[in-house]
Amino acid sequence: MHQLLSVYRSVLSPFVWPSVRSRTLGVMICVCAALIGTEALQLWRVYDDNIRQNDLITSNTAQSLASQAETSLQTADTIVASLVEQVEAEGTGPEAKSRLYHLMTSLAAALPAIHEMGIMDKNGDPVVKSLVTNLAGLNYSEREYYRYHRAHADRQAYIGERITSKIDGAQSITVTRRYNNPDGSFGGVVVASVSLSFFQHLFDQMQAKSGGVIVLLGDDGVILVRSPALPKASYRIAGELRQDLQDHPGGGSVAYKSGFDAVQRQGSYQHLRGFPLTALVSQSDWDIQAPWRAELEWHGIILTCVIIVVIGLGGRAITATNLLAAQAMQDSLTGLANRRCFDERIQRELKRAARSGQPVSVIMIDIDHFKAFNDCYGHPAGDECLRLVARTIQGSLRRQGEFAARYGGEEIAVLLPGCDGPRAAALAETMLRAVRGLALRQAGHLDDVVTFSAGVGTCAPGRDEGDAQALVEMADTALYAAKAAGRNRVATAWCSGVARGREAAELVSLPSAA
Q1: What is the DSSP letter of 11?
Q2: For 321, what's the count of Cα atoms within 13 Å in the CB-facing half-sphere?
Q3: What span, in angstroms and rounded, lies between the C-alpha atoms of 127 and 252?
Q4: What is the DSSP letter of 143?
Q5: pLDDT digit string, tens, across residues 282-338
Q6: What stretch of H or E contains 188?
């Protein structure tokens, strides 16, 4: 938890999430102010004000639920997009499958909204699934999302219909993206299933506090989740209500007679941005006017409770948003930032360097003979080795702005703003000595301990913004030079500027770390 929030504070907080936090606080303040004003009006317009109060509560509850549902689906889509990139970059070989399985399993365990994840090939056969390792007999070619992606070449996310898991029978909705073969042909589908039981639990908690009916429904009118829950049979909303939602698709107030229990209700709905779903919160007319029939002093107590609930939900929404944002930017195995986070950070640092004229260095680190280590000691030991090396590298960073991320596999990238080549090389040597000092046993390797090879790339952009890819390639070239020279060493490369064109990195030295 602490590591996730550290990633959030250092990478995301200044750029993305203040707007989300501000909007949430703004909604909370508006709700509280509106409810306090409504209390004064109860003295002479109780009946009408009860209706207005219901509109406010259901509107903000619907917005809050829609926001949480959007966050869950956006998180699922972020994971799917990352998996698509990984599959297209690394393929689905045995080693890639193992990494994908561990990644998907850990993500599914960490995110309560995610039920399962999977990668299907072009025939609908599962390549990797998070819930099971034995995939024999499974095929998903009949799924609606698979048929869609096979027929459409676009790379956008697709939200599928409600499905039943073939593994455990759980109900979920799917967030999917297509991935392609190297020649651009259809390679298969990456899918993340968002559990409907997660929304059911969330809605039940809200319904227990506020009463009424809370519904999540698709644009086709099918009720996906309802609290209180419906019987197992599938239901569609009444035609009149469905027409009202279609006439004003964004959000608003609605009055309708339920086709399930024939109760007249009033409430509000909010359509999810970017997703074909709507959150509907409503109360029966009888319940809306309960304070009018009861003594007026009880209404003040109810308003106080509602304000507390709204404040509590707003605080939880901010915390959950921050946590999910950090999870999307962290590597679950090592605790370092992930590749996506590194790519965003290096772009920002190069823009800053273009303004200040300061150099930027990147250290690309690759653990020597890591595959042999895994083959000898097993993947759990390999994971622990990778965690210890990552922790040691992170612990070697002292200056503000220095940043380490898991780049992929056993590769770790270190970003050093304002650091020239010699200082970066010296830091890489320090890291190498620290890793050797761990004395992690690796039979048959140099001195029988774990070591790494490192490549240092440095550029000093002028007024033009530097090229992140060229800088990374420069460090990667130096890394391969270090490997070619016998491993367990640091190689350096430098370039006076990488702006519009990409200049080849010049190998400067190969200092030994022994």
Answers
A1: I
A2: 25
A3: 44
A4: S
A5: 988 888 877 777 766 666 677 778 778 777 777 777 777 766 666 677 888 888 888
A6: strand 186-195
Q: Is 329 helix (H, G, I), strand (E, B) or coil?
A: coil
pTM for the structure as a whole: 0.47
Token readout for 306 is 């509602």
CA distance 255 to 93: 55
Residues 388 and 117: their CA atoms lie apart, in Å, by 28
Q: How far apart are CA 353 and CA 171, in angstroms?
A: 50
Measured distance CA(98)–CA(92) in Å, rounded:
9
| Contacts with 208 (C-beta within 8 Å, 6 or more apart), sequence order | none
Which residues lie closer than 8 Å to 266 by C-beta, 6 or more apart? 51, 54, 55, 58, 253, 254, 255, 282, 283, 285, 288
- Tokens at residue 425, please? 């090389």
Residue 505: CB atoms within 10 A of its CB come to 25
* Cα 222 to Cα 225, 228, 239, distances in angstroms: 9, 16, 11
Looking up tokens 């602490």 gives 2
Nearest of 360, 355, 491 to residue 416 by alpha carbon: 360
Distance of alpha carbon 269 from alpha carbon 187, whole angstroms: 39
